[in-house]
Specification:
The chain is an alpha/beta fold. It has four helices and 14 strands. The protein is elongated. Keywords: ATP-binding, Kinase, Nucleotide-binding, Transferase.
Length: 218
């Protein structure tokens, strides 16, 4: 099972979800993200939020169409998105993808990035997607990459205080056994120089971001 969570970030940053209604996908709405899903004729299996960002009419429609909607108070210890991620993790999915969690308020965005650590800790891939980027966290190891003309730029950032032994093969700017730490921009904005490449590292937690040119959108 693959769980896709749609939160209530700025709609201009959210890609079209397409017609992926296969049985292997479970859609989850978070606050205004529920409204975004309904607009695309997708009824989420689960919904979370205090719903302070929707109108009374929109909330009434959600309650009418969604059988499993959890309404929370505005004052609580977790964000609406964390509640959804915690529920998703408990389902033991193959992967979790989050939409609508970039743009807008930076505190929420940075908090959502840190939610990805729950995946690292539990062996579940969590990805963030918007119209411009795809973000993923990875543990030490070696990983294959394929050139993607829609997302040509590839960046690596340390999520742990330091990441050691980074090697980039098949890249325009290759690296061999380099170390980076918080505050370093060495691995920002690279590209694959061949159709296929690899990246590897020995220790730490690394974020990989695949991005497109700012003049294009997904």
């Amino acid at each position: 099972m693959n769980i896709k969570i749609v939160a209530g970030g700025p709609p201009e940053n959210i890609p079209a979800f397409g017609a992926d209604t296969s049985e292997t996908v479970t859609w989850v709405g978070v606050d205004r993200g529920v409204h975004y899903l309904l607009e695309q004729n997708i009824i989420p299996s689960k919904a979370f939020g205090d719903f302070d960002s929707v109108t009374a009419a929109e909330l009434a429609e959600m309650k009418r169409k969604i059988t499993d909607l959890d309404l929370y108070p505005s004052e609580k210890d977790e964000t609406d998105t964390e509640l959804a991620v915690n529920w998703a993790m408990a389902q033991n999915p193959a992967s979790i993808t989050m939409f609508g969690v970039t743009g807008g308020r930076l505190d929420h965005f940075l908090g959502n990035v840190q939610l990805m650590l729950k995946g690292i800790q539990n062996g579940i891939t969590i990805e963030i997607q918007d119209k411009q980027n795809k973000l993923i966290l990875v543990k030490p190891g070696q990983y294959p990459l394929k050139k993607d003309k829609n997302l040509p730029y590839i960046s690596f950032l340390p999520i742990s205080p330091a990441v050691s032994g980074i090697t980039l093969d098949g890249f325009k700017y290759p690296l061999k056994n380099r170390n980076i730490k918080w505050g370093d921009t060495l691995c920002i904005s690279n590209e694959l120089d061949t159709e296929n490449g690899t990246f590897s590292f020995k220790d730490g937690i690394l974020m990989m971001i695949r991005s497109r040119d700012s003049s294009h959108i997904i």
